[in-house]
Amino acid sequence: MRNTPAVFLLVALLGSAAPLAQESRNGIPAQDVRNTVLAGNTHYKMPVFATREEWLERAAFLRKQILASAGLLPMPEKRPLNAQVFGKLERDGYTVEKVLLETLPGFYLGGNLYRPRGRQGPFPGVVSPHGHWHYGRLENTALVSVPGRAISFARQGYVVFTYDMVGQNDTNQVPHDWLDSRQELWSIGSSMGLHLWNSIRATDFLTSLPDVDPNKISATGASGGGTQTFFLMAVDERIKVAAPVNMISATSQGGGCQAAANLRAGWTDFSNMVVGALMAPRPLILISNGGDWTVETPKEVFPAIQSVYRLLGAENSVTNVHFPSFIHNYNKESREAVYQFFNKHILNNPAPVSEAAFRVDFPHELLALHGRARPANAITGLDQLVENHIRDARAATERLQPRDAATLAAAREAFSEQLTFSLLALPPKPAELLAEKKQTLPTREDLLIGRAGKGDRVPAVWLTPSRRNQEVAPTLVVHPKGIAGVVDSVLVKAMLNRGGIVMSIDAFQTGSAVAPRDTSARAFTSYNQTNDANRVQDILTALEYLRSRSKAQTVNLVGLDVAGVWSYFARTMAGPGVNLVADLAQFAADTDAEYLSRFNIPGLRKAGDFRAAAVMNSQGRALIYNAGPQFPTDWARQAAKAAGSELDLRSGTVAEPDLAAWLNLKSRN
C-alpha cells in the first residue's frame, strides 16, 4: 500500500461486503454465500468468543493457518544465518552497523543494527520492519522515519534491527510481490511467506546477540511493516510487546505481499482484527489516525481486540492511541506514543518520552551492499527460489513415507495437520448440520443441507429402499454432474435393491448448484476457497449428515469420474467408519498442470498431495481404481500394509455392477 492520500480515502470509503443471503427458517440461505461473498476489502465483524477456552482453541488453529499459508508449516529448518555485521559508525548516543543475513540458502536479507553507545547490556531488542515507503528502511521524512525511530530506541537503551522488505534496497534478489497459481500449490504463490520468514529469522538474529536480552523482544512497524509486525507477533511468542502502526482495520486487509492463498479463506470472520487479538495477553498498542483505513479503530477495532484480552484477564494490556487529524504515517507523535508504551512494559518506566533531534546517515553509509557483492552462492531470481522451495517440500514429504506402524503413525500426524490447512475442510459437528426438505416422495426426498453460520447451500437427494437392510451401510455417491449423474445409475439401483440407503449431492458448482462466481480478482484465493476445496467440504458435510440421520456406524463413500479425486481427499478428513470407492480418473498425480486444471487446491502439493492422502486413507476398506501411472502406488500399499487395512488398488476402470458387488460384499454396517 503506497502512502498516497487518494488511496487512503478510497480504501477508507470502501463499502461493506455483500450481505449474507437471507436465510430460511432452517438456516439455509437463498444463495450459497460462497458465490456471493468474495471480496477482500469488506467490512468484517469480530466474532464473539464466549469463553477463554473457545478463543484459545480458535487461536491455535489460526496461528497454524497463518503458518501454512506462508509455507511455514511445518517450520523449515533454521540453517545458520551466517550473519555479517560490519561498517560500524559511532554516533551521538548510539552506534549503527550494516547487516547481511542468509535467511535461506543463497537468499540474503539486508538491514541495520542500532545499539546504545557507552552503556552495558544486556538490552531489550526491537525488530523493526519498515513498510511500503519509497526508500524502505532508509525512509526519512516528517511522515515517517525508519532510521529515526531506531536511533531514538537505541538512545533509550534498546538494540534495534531494521531490515528490508523483499525486493527493496539490499534485499532485491527477487521481486517485492508476486502471485502465481502454480506456485500456490506449493505454498509459495506470493511473497507474504518470505516476508514472515525473514521476520522470524530477524528475531533469531536479534535474540542471538550477546548484548540482547532474548526475553525482552518487541516489534513495531507501520503500513506493510505493521502487517509484518502483527503476523510475526501472531506466530512467534518471543515477541513480548508489539506496536503495529496504522494498519489493523475492519475494512482493509491488505493485498499483494500481505496476502497468501488460504490465508483468510474458509472462515467468514478471519480479519486482521482477529490476527491482532492473537497477541493477547501480551502488551499491544494500536496506533490509528483519521486519514486512512484505521479511522474507525477506536470505535470498532480496539474494542473488538480488547474483548479477547478481557477473556484472558489482560484487558489493560492493550491500548489505542488515535490521531484524528493525521494521514497514514509513523511520525514523531506516533513514535512517541510507542516509545512510552514500550518503556512502560519493557523498562518499567511509564513516563512520557520526547524524541530528541537526530541526523540520519546517508544511504551509502547504511546500505549493506553499497560497493559490496553478495556471497557467491546467492540465488539469481524468483525461479531459483521457488524451485529450491519445491525441492525442500518434496524431500520433507518423502521423509514421511511409512515403513511400519510407528512411521505410519508419525506420517498420519504430520499429514493430518498439513492437509487440514490446505483443504480447510472439516466434518461439521452434528449440532452444526442444517437441513431443509424441499420435496418428499415415498422413496425419495429432495433437500438442502449446510452448516450453521457458514452460508453454504448443498442440494441433496435421500433415497430409501422399499425394504431396509440394516446390514448394508448407507452410501453417499458423488459425481461431477451432480445428482443427475447417479440417481438412475446401475450402481444406485443395485444398492437400493440390496436394501441400503443412498444419498447424493450437487457438490459445489455441479448440477443445480452451478451459479455465477467471479474468480478473477487478484488474490482471490487469499479470501476464498477454490471450487474443488468447496467440493471436498460438501462431501464431508454430506457424509456427516448421512451418518447422523441414518445412525450408522459405517458408511460408504463412492466418487465417480473426477469426483473420485474429490472423494479420495475428503476421506482423509472424514475419520473412521468410512469405506471408500474412488475413481481416480487417470489423474496425473505428480504434474502441477493437472492439479490446476482438474483439482486446484492451494498448498496441496506441499502438504503431500496423493502421498499424504494415501497415508490418511489407510484406516478402512478402500477400492481405488483407474489410478494413473503417477499415482504413488508404493505409498498406498505400504500404508495399508502397515495399518493392516484392506486396499484394492487397480489401474483400470471398474464397471458399476462390479462396484456394487464390491460394496455389497465388503460394506457391512
What keywords describe this structure?
alpha/beta; 34% helix; 9-stranded mixed beta sheet; 669 residues; single chain; disordered N terminus; Rossmann fold
Describe the protein:
The chain is α/β, with parallel strands linked by helices and 669 residues long. It folds into two domains: 84-346 and 371-390, Alpha/Beta hydrolase fold, catalytic domain (Rossmann fold, 3-Layer(aba) Sandwich), CATH 3.40.50; 405-513 and 525-666, Rossmann fold, CATH 3.40.50. The chain contains 20 helices and 18 strands. A nine-stranded mixed sheet has the order 1-2-3-5-4-6-7-8-9, with helices on both faces. Helix 3 (146-156) links the parallel strand 4 (123-129) and strand 5. The longest helix is centred in the C-terminal third of the chain and has 20 residues, at 531-550. It is elongated and about 90 Å long.
The Rg value, from CA coordinates, equals 27 Å
Shape summary: elongated
Structural class: alpha/beta
> What is the domain total for the residues?
2
Q: Beta-sheet strand percentage?
A: 15-25%
Assign the CATH superfamily of the largest domain.
Answer: Alpha/Beta hydrolase fold, catalytic domain
Instruction: Please tell me the overall pLDDT.
Output: 93
Number of helical regions:
20
Overall helicity: 25-40%
What would the CATH topology of the largest domain be? Answer: Rossmann fold
The main β sheet shows up as: 9 strands, mixed
Level-2 CATH architecture of the largest domain:
3-Layer(aba) Sandwich
- In the CATH hierarchy, what is the class of the largest domain? Alpha Beta
Q: Termini, distance in Å?
A: 57 Å
